[in-house]
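Cross-check.
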Amino acid sequence: MNPQPSKPVRKDARDNRDRILSVARAELAVSATASLSAIARKAGVGIGTLYRHFPTREALIMELYRHDLQHLIDLAPELLAAHPPLEALRRWFDEVARYGRLKFGVSEIIHAATGGGADDPMYGPFVHAISVLLDAGAADGTVKPGIDPEDVLLQLSVLWRIDPARGDAGARAARILGLIVDGLRAV
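Predicted model, tokenized:
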């Protein structure tokens, strides 16, 4: 039996969905407890429209998570094409840190929804992006060879623990990333 072809999504529905995601990203970065009704209002849609796209708060957060992680995954080869490997790695880490500030208040929801990462379809591609950056640095001699990308991911996971409300959150993330990069750098 052939599955029914999915109906194309109307442009206005896509636009509404994109606006909801954009507003939700901004609102959740300010407060992890931002209400869905406030997000809908600021996106210029009714709460029913928001729920048609995202039936639960968790569904909205997980879609933001998938979208943002895909951006980071896609960014790795773009940075390598534009910068030397060690600089590309550092710039990518900076983006990961920026994402970590956005993820701070909702990390428990993501952790629960992905089985602590065990059921996360984004895990493999994200680790691969790290591997691509590490391999390029090892090939040009700026990064130690043989580094396990999952070890690097564990180091980066501290970024989601930095409270963005702290006045020095950005500086703290930069210091931590400096330590990580220094540890990866070929001597």
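Residues 57-82 form the longest helix (26 residues). The mean pLDDT is 88. Passed to J.P. for a second look.
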